[in-house]
Write a structure and sequence with these properties.
By secondary structure, this protein is of the alpha+beta class. About 55% of the residues lie in helices and about 20% in strands. The structure holds adenosine-5'-diphosphate (ADP).
Length: about 575
């Protein structure tokens, strides 16, 4: 039921009840007053009857008594009854003689008894004889002892018509009440509505999350009545709500930030597989730009379909799978899917395990390379020692050859072991660097001088060219090791009579040092691998050149420790340029 109907119902019910009570009281008072007036009239007429009849015992026959009653009844326009002192009716203007003979004794009638006892009496009741409501008035006749009773009665039809009029008025009054109730409820509702509507509008806006500043200002918070109270409460609720929303948003942002900062990708789906949350890392790892509102089943990654099916069957699942990237490289991903205990959603966690896989394969390669590289000199040493023991020792000339081979390979072994130890010290950070400001030109001059004996022996010339004066930040020993390895290689892979050039240029806050030779050069294919441990080109393996395949790996690790980079370029004619960078001081 709406407010309008309720108010109408309340007003209408209240007015109806009040009017009904008023009607009942008015009708009762009116009928009493009316009856008393009739009684008054009847008393006057009764007195007249007594004075005209005197003593009813004077009637000799019932016929006479009844005929006199009939005459008097007609004359007074009322019912006249003669009743003996013992209650016997002897004449009645409304009954004939036969009916009078059958009528019951009237001594028990209230008005008759009162008349006999007190002189007069009245009452009103329904007459079974005449079948209508009558008002009776009884009075004693003139008989001295044991007086009889003369009774006069009139129908109460006047009273009925008066109450009928009252009833009609009541109906009219109800119509008026109905209209008044309608108008009153409309006025009340309009008053309430105009006040409540503003409050309701603001409350609805708050509920729908569209709370604007202007809305709250429109609230009648200054009013002293109940509407003011409600307005103040709404305003307070709105402020609290805003604070809580801000707090939740901040917490969500923080949480989202934490999830975005995680190295792992996290993706949440509902039971149908629709993505309800995913952090930035998931898009990166899965190489899918848009994940929100997607369905995990439509992502075209079979491994994710597998995980979803397993987890849908209430099983936790893990799988390693590949993602093909645009540059044709492969990313390895470990995906684990589980069901959230609180929400029942499915949570997918993805890790990029490419590096881990590469490390594993590098470790495997390293071990197999190491065994291979160590086995060759060890086998040579063993074979030569066996030959010596088998009798070659007796032949001085042969023994010298075998002993030389043993020496050469043991030197190779010791170089390799020393390089390996250095490399692991650099890689594990055990090498303590002593970073200093170094005058690069004087450092290079000294370095070139120190190589003099080697250059002479190999008939290879070293030239140092520097256009400008530079100071760099580096560890002198590490820098010397880098230069040693690069220049040593340049010697190893160049022909007699050629020259090696060392030059420097400045580039992006770094000095680029280039060691250029006119040797065998490096093919494009080899360029990608020569800085790996144990990597030696096929021609280097075939040549007499001693080497472990660790020199350039050491150069790379040392330059990286000095915050520099390393690389190789082919020269146009022949040979190669090995370069590295070191920060300018
Ligand atoms: P190695 O002990 O074999 O010299 P490195 O790590 O120093 O080991 O070098 C790796 C490989 O790179 C060499 O085996 C060789 O094939 C190639 N290389 C290095 N320097 C040069 C160069 N200056 N010219 C041509 N090839 C080179």
């Amino acid at each position: 039921m709406g407010i309008r109907s309720r108010i109408f119902f309340i007003v209408f019910s209240l007015l109806t009840v009040s009017i009904s009570i008023a009607y009942v009281v008015a009708e009762r008072d009116l009928s009493t007053a009316f009856k008393l007036q009739i009684v008054n009239e009847l008393e006057k007429q009764a007195n007249l009857l007594v004075s005209s009849v005197g003593n009813i015992d004077k009637f000799k026959t019932p016929i006479e008594a009844d005929s006199i009653a009939n005459d008097l009844g007609k004359a007074s326009n009322s019912r006249v009854t003669f009743i003996k002192n013992n209650g016997q009716v002897i004449g009645d203007s409304e009954l004939n003689i036969d009916q009078i003979a059958l009528i019951d004794n009237h001594i028990s009638r209230l008005e008759v008894r009162e008349a006999i006892e007190k002189g007069k009496g009245w009452s009103s009741r329904y007459s079974e004889t005449l079948k209508q409501d009558l008002l009776y008035f009884a009075i004693r006749d003139n008989k001295e002892t044991e007086p009889n009773v003369i009774r006069i009665a009139v129908p109460l039809t006047y009273l009925d018509s008066a109450t009928d009029t009252l009833g009609l008025s009541l109906v009219l009054l109800f119509v008026v009440v109905f209209i008044v109730s309608m108008i009153a409820s409309a006025v009340a509702v309009n008053f309430l509505y105009s006040n409540i509507k503003d409050l309701a509008d603001v409350a609805t806006n708050i509920a729908e999350g569209e709370n604007k500043k202007g809305d709250l200002k429109a609230l009648p918070t200054q009013r002293g009545d109940d509407f003011g109270k409600v307005a103040r409460s709404i305003s307070q609720i709105s402020e609290d709500l805003k604070g809580q929303i801000k707090m939740i948003a901040r917490q969500r942002d923080q949480f989202g930030q934490v999830l975005d900062d995680l190295g792992e990708g996290i993706l949440v789906t509902n039971k149908d597989g629709e993505v309800v949350f995913s952090n930035e890392q998931t898009s990166i790892i899965l190489n899918i730009k848009k994940l929100s509102n997607e369905n995990i089943k439509n992502l075209k990654i079979p491994a994710l379909n597998y995980l979803f099916k397993r987890v849908d069957n209430k099983k936790r699942a893990d799988i390693e799978f590949e993602i093909e990237l645009e540059d044709k490289t492969t990313r390895w991903v470990l995906g684990s899917m589980n069901t959230s205990k609180t929400t029942g959603d499915y949570i997918l966690v993805v890790h990029d395990i490419t590096q881990l896989r590469q490390l594993n394969s590098m470790r495997r390669d390293f071990i197999s390379n190491l065994s291979h590289e160590l086995r060759t000199p060890v086998s040579v040493i063993r074979a030569n020692s066996e030959t010596l023991l088998d009798g070659a020792l007796d032949n001085k000339k042969e023994a010298k050859v075998f002993a030389k081979a043993i020496l050469h390979n043991s030197e190779r072994l010791s170089v390799m072991v020393a390089d390996l130890i250095d490399l692991s010290r650099i890689e594990y950070g055990d090498l303590k660097l002593n970073i200093k400001k170094i005058d690069l030109i004087s450092f290079m001059d000294d370095f070139v001088t120190s190589m003099k004996s080697v250059t002479k022996k190999k008939e290879i010339e070293i030239i140092f060219k520097s256009n400008h004066y530079d100071f760099v930040k580096a560890d002198p020993q590490a820098l010397e090791r880098i230069m040693n390895n690069l220049v040593d290689n340049a010697f190893k892979y160049s022909e007699k009579g050629s020259s090696i050039e060392i030059s420097t240029i400045t580039e992006h806050q770094h000095v680029k040092v280039m060691v250029s030779d006119s040797g065998v050069g490096v093919s494009d294919e080899d360029k990608d691998h020569i800085f790996d441990r144990f990597y030696r080109t096929a021609s280097a393996r075939a040549s007499d050149n001693k080497g472990s395949g660790l020199g350039l790996a050491i150069v790379k690790n040392l330059t990286n420790s000095l915050n520099g980079e390393v690389g190789v370029e082919s020269k146009n004619d022949s040979g190669s340029i090995f370069w590295f960078t070191i920060p300018i001081d």
